[in-house]
Each structure stands twice: as structure tokens, then as C-alpha cells.
Amino acid sequence: MSNLHYPQFCALARAAEIIGERWTLLIIRELLLGPKRFGDLLDHLDGMSPTLLITRLTALIECNVVRRTALPPPANAQVYELTEIGREVQPAIRELIRWGGRFLFPPVPGDTFEPDWVLLGLDAIAKRSPVPEIRVGLVVTHGKGSAGFTVAGGGFGTAIERGITDCKGTLEAPFDAVLQIVGTSVSVQDAIEAKRARVSGSMALVRKLPLLFDLAERRRMTPASN
Fold first, then answer.
1. What are the record keywords, sorted (predicted)?
2. What's the CATH architecture for 116-212?
3. What is residue 87's predicted lDDT score, i.e. its pLDDT?
């Protein structure tokens, strides 16, 4: 079990005991993106020691938040994945990402970044109400790495899918430029002219990308500071 203990009979205190240890939320972030081998977790948790990772995983397994399992042949690799109880924390993680986004910039020198993390970031600002039924491709770049997603709108809101499928227009940009575009602080055309973005296929379709997110609306609702 976790060494963290708050001597209070409170559900929030119990939750904090399980996910409040250093690195634990980031382990859960990785597993929300899919099962991971131990080495994969270490690669994406730069600065965490193998010993500490074992300790945190063991505590999460004892709480039935994480389980060990094996991939089917031919992989035959042992991986860690969230249990059903573990996955139930996703709405809370989504709200933490939304809240933490206001503190994201400017980037801290030396911070690492994985384009795959964008999936959770985009999900946090995706609209949960009806939006236009469109599919827009999105390629998020970072250095030599990139990750592709399909942003799909419909009657139930916006869904973010890995990979680009059946998209007639695709935006390619680093994550900060993507946030500026979906937040409507920078237009697609201005980002292209500044060489911060590229569009392939339908420009008209890509221009509708902000309609699938609520970032611009949340900014308008934030009181201006004096």
C-alpha cells in the first residue's frame, strides 16, 4: 500500500492516498493511453527510477487500480494496465488536465514531451454537446516525433481517435500552435503564414476544427485580471 496516509475519514483523503504520491498520476496518464510494458513506462517517465516505479506500481496493484497481464502471442510480453476501477478515475484526470492547462505555458526548459499525450489533452477540451458531423485529421509534431489523430464531431460531441482515417482535411502543427488554433487566438491562415502549421486537403474543413472544442468558450468565460 501507499506510504501516504491522511488521518481523516474522508473519501477525498483516501483518493489522495492512492493517487497523490509523486509520479502516480503520471503513471495513470500513461496507462489511460493503453497497456504499457515496464520499459515503456520508464521511457515516458523521464527522471523516475526503476525502483520507485516498481514501488508505485505495486501500490496501485494492491489497491486494484492497476493489474499485470500478458499480451497474446507472438508478443508474449508482460504489461501493466488499468483495471475497471482504475479507468473510473478518467473523468477526474480530464478535469485536472483542463485545470492544469492554464499553467502549461511558458514551457519549462528541459521538460520532455510525448506527442501521444496530446490525446488526453485534446479529450479534456473536446465538446460534450452536439457539434458538426465532420472528421478532421491532426498531426501533432515535436522535434523529430509526431502523432496523428482523427477529430470526429457528431451529435454526442467530439471524439479523438488515434490515427488518421477518412479525413478530407488535415492540420499539421506543434501542440502549442494547435492550442492557439482551436482556441481561436490564431487563425489557421496566420499559423500557416508564420510557418507554424501546414494543411493538406480541404482548408475549409480544417478551419472548422475550433468548433469541435470548447477552449475558446472557456477563455471568454474567464474573468480578465486587473
1. DNA-binding, Transcription, Transcription regulation
2. 2-Layer Sandwich (3.30)
3. 97
Class of residue 25 by CB neighbours under 10 A (exposed 0-12, middle 13-18, buried 19+): middle
Work out the angle at residue 157's Cα, subtended by the Cα atoms of residues 156 and 159, and round it to the nearest 5 degrees: 110
Taking only the tens place, the pLDDT of each residue in 6-50 is: 999 999 999 999 999 999 999 999 999 999 999 999 999 999 999
Per-residue pLDDT tens digits for 134-155: 999 999 998 888 999 999 999 9
* Cα 18 to Cα 118: distance, rounded to the nearest angstrom: 25
116-212 matches 11-88 in CATH topology: no
| DSSP assignment letter at 115 | G
Terminus-to-terminus CA distance in the chain, angstroms?
46
Neighbours of 80 (CB within 10 A): 21
3-state secondary structure at position 161: strand
* DSSP structural state of residue 16: H
Question: What value, to the nearest 5°, has the Cα angle with vertex 58 and ends 87 and 33?
Answer: 35
CA dist., res. 131 & res. 139, Å (int): 21
Cα 153 to Cα 73, 135, 137, 198, 211, distances in angstroms: 36, 6, 12, 21, 9
Q: Which among 90, 100, 111, 123 is positioned nearest to 45, based on CA atoms?
A: 111
Return the closest-CA partner of residue 179 out of 220, 223, 126, 215. Answer: 215
Cβ(161)–Cβ(152) under 8 Å?
yes
11-88: which CATH architecture?
Orthogonal Bundle (1.10)
